[in-house]
Design goal:
Layout lengths: L16 H22 L5 H11 L5 H14 L21
Helix pairs in contact: 1-2, 1-3, 2-3
The structure holds zinc ion.
Length: 94
Amino acid sequence: MSTRQDCPTCPSRDVTDTHIGRCRFVTTERTSAEQYGATQGIPAVATADAWAHLGHVATPQDATRIIRQIVDLGWRPVIGKDPGRLWTGGDDRG
Ligand SMILES: [Zn+2]
């Protein structure tokens, strides 16, 4: 049996080594995606949301790679149908 401990990455307490390793890995990948999106003025919450959705069909590393491709292609400031997800900033040429 593994020792239960508090996660150093997230606020979870009494977790296993499996959680700690997975949590650090997932957090690193999500943060990397958020930072890449931020270079184009995309709010971290929007990037993290898209990243999480991609995570349903891809590994965390693949989700980050896909986010980078989306940002490089020119992600327009509407994802989904919720007008509350509109944002301003970045390049507004079109
Ligand atoms: Zn954690």
